[in-house]
Write a structure and sequence with these properties.
With 189 residues, the chain is α/β, with parallel strands linked by helices. The chain is built from 8 helices and 8 strands. It has one domain: 3-Layer(aba) Sandwich (Rossmann fold). The strands form 2 sheets. It has a 6-stranded parallel β-sheet. Strands 4-5 form a two-stranded antiparallel sheet. It starts with a strand and ends with a helix. InterPro entries: Cytidylate_Kinase-2, P-loop_NTPase.
């Protein structure tokens, strides 16, 4: 079983952390949280979508190239990495001082994606690769969000336990819990 900790313990770990991994469903607030923590703690912000997964025009980068880039990035000394790809947990979890799991309800994640689209439609977000403008979510993406927890939740637990059973993992189940963690850490978001 992963080393689940409460928010207060997570903040203590976060205050000394050099490498933080943030995972969760699209629309759950991973990027916003990661960017706020990055700015406050001076950790390099790494968006997996921007730096590893996507090339201009929404072309997926080849998997071998993705893995090589992730391997290089996790070798760095100070970072916060925003992205849920469980196939790279073997690289990321052992190097992490803390895993933050934004485990939002599916309706909240769907709302987050719809809000994001309304704000940035047709433009490329700062956490997305150049040439990948925000678009309307298709049925497959909405289904991915709807089923995210049932499909990925058990995989996250298994991979965290396998690759970092002693790495502290904080689960944030609501925006209120995210704000609480930011407040306790003294982060102005």
């Amino acid at each position: 079983m992963p080393n689940f900790v409460g928010i207060e313990v997570a903040v203590e770990v976060l205050n000394a952390a050099q490498r933080v991994m943030v995972v969760g469903c699209p629309g759950g607030g991973k990027s916003t949280l990661s960017q706020a923590l990055s700015a406050h703690f001076g950790l390099r912000y790494i968006s997996m979508d921007k730096e590893f997964f996507w090339l201009p025009g929404w072309v997926a980068r080849p998997r071998a190239e993705q893995r090589a880039l992730i391997t290089e990035a996790v070798a760095g000394e100070r970072w916060i990495m925003d992205g849920s790809n469980p196939t790279s947990f073997d690289l990321r979890v052992p190097r992490s001082d803390l895993v933050i799991w934004a485990r939002m309800r599916r309706l909240l994640s769907l709302w987050g994606v719809l809000t994001r689209v309304a704000k940035t439609y047709g433009r490329t977000r700062p956490d997305m690769a150049s040439g990948c403008p925000e678009q309307l979510p298709d049925r497959a993406f909405l289904r991915y969000i709807w089923n995210f927890e049932s499909v990925h939740g058990p995989v996250f637990v298994r991979n965290i336990d396998l690759h970092g059973p002693d790495v502290p993992v904080v689960v944030l189940n609501s925006r209120a819990e995210m704000r609480c963690m930011l407040d306790l850490a003294g982060v102005r978001a």
